Amino acid sequence: MEQDYEKELNEIMGSFTCPQDFECYKQRFENICKAEETGQDLLLVCLEKNPSACPLSLNFGDKYYCECSLHIYIAKKLNK
Questions:
Q1: Which one of 1, 38, 43, 67 has the fewest CB atoms closer than 10 angstroms to its CB?
Q2: pTM (2 d.p.)
């Protein structure tokens, strides 16, 4: 991962408590859950089979959205 992003990643992680203890970061985002951008800055569409199991998912209508600010940053900046 590029050094340029480390400071921003640390700032994001310091801004909220992750119920999974930032496991995705510890694994260098190799096993990050599946999601795609919505065109909105604050949400990703969750593509996992059981999105309701994620404490950072938000159900709206017939879709679940990822509210994890770390995952949103990774999707937008690092395309993961």
A1: 1
A2: 0.84
